[in-house]
Amino acid sequence: MLECNLDAKGKAARFLGGIAAILGALVLAALLATDTVVFGLGWYAVGGAIFGGAFAIFEARAGWCIVRAIGIKTPL
Questions:
Q1: What was the pLDDT predicted at 49?
Q2: Nearest-CA neighbor of 19 among 58, 47, 45?
């Protein structure tokens, strides 16, 4: 079902991007929790970044990219 469509460079880029998104979400969560930063949809941004980062890590582990699977060419 999930046919491998990534090479080693693409897997590494998605993995690092996923880790960065999750770390960024944790930093944002800490800032929101301490009221250092206040904005209405902040917790939704945290949830979205965690979900997106986890999905990117999944893509790296599976060697599959959803964007490539629908036919869009990516540089990596």
A1: 98
A2: 58
